Amino acid sequence: MFAFLVRRCFQITSKVQKLTSQFPNESRNITNYHLLAHCTQRRIVTHRNIKYLQRSAPFWIQINCFHVSSQASKIKKVGEPEKRELDLIRYDFKELKNSPKPALYLGYGGLIPFVSAPLVMAITETYFPELAFAQIAYGATILSFFGGARWGFSIPESSPAKPDWLNLGNSVVPSLLAWIALLFCDNLTESAIMIIMGLGIALHYDLALLPGYPSWLRGLRTVLTVVATFSLVATLVIKNTYPEKKLVSDKK
Fold this sequence. Notes:
It is a single chain. The chain has helices at residues 2-22, 27-55, 57-79, 88-92, 101-109, 112-124, 129-154, 165-183, 188-209, 215-239. Helix content is 76%, strand content 0%.
């Protein structure tokens, strides 16, 4: 049977050669026809091979794995939240554990003068104006310190906060507010309110308007400011609740 097919192929080839020799103008068309038939046959074979590969298990495993990974990457990109500047709870407070130990100890230790004054007055159930003034004076000092820290942060050449009018001008504002608060020494309520306003403005500058404290310092500044503010509010509440008594009586 194989020999018969071989003979028939040779006979067809010889007939084609005779036809091309008799019709030279049509030889190109015949040759193109054979090339087209050959290409079509190869495409059919390739298509069959692809179908066979698609039915095989490894091919489907590769496609499925690639499909799942692409979907997973899309879901991950959509689900990742963008970091926002004032997102303190999600980012800055989590960085408090990475704060340098001296900054933590000195920062929390600096709250003792704020907390001790209303604590003593609450225990004795007496409002002492001397303790209230000492607390306000200490708050004015801390307020000036925040402004100086911002000024010093803007000076280095590598700092993200450049020494322009915005950074240096806003770093002077807390000191001015502290000075005005001390001018109202005869009215401690106004002085305490001025210090509370200054602490809030300084914190707003550091978190929103001016760049670039690290996350741990932003979180620490927020905690310190909140505690100091509530201690001053507690002093104002004690002033309106308990009787006033001076620590040192005036002797004539």
